[in-house]
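Quick one: structure for this chain?
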Amino acid sequence: MSVAFRRESDEDHKEPRFELPIPPGANLVTARGLALIGQRIAALEADLASAETDERREAVRRDLRYWHTRQTTAELAPVPGEDTVAFGSRVRFRLNGRERQIDIVGADEADPATDRIVFTAPLATALIGTEPGESVEFNGREDAIEVIATGAIP
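Got it. Here's what it folds into:
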């Protein structure tokens, strides 16, 4: 039989397990974001204690390494003021004739489905530094976004 058809073990053919990628740049967090990281770590530690297989334990350990790194490198951002859009702001604005509201948060807290966007997203970067009543360029259009109101995320 040809060597090409023999398999020494299943271990030789498993997909490699890579570490979870850490987003580049500063790890800014809101108070809520820091609490969520702590909750995630607690849940994973409970999973690790109840994991029944070596494969599951290793997967949970990998996730724990990621979240411990995120907790260690977290920089709690100051609460923003009411007059200028910043990290941690809730912003109400008009884009394409439609009024929207978003929260500008850190990478681990971001969830576009619930209108929580990461501070490095194009929309967030266009809004940061603006004030209510101001219009800003977005996607190559002048005055595409009109900032209506801003304040700290409650």
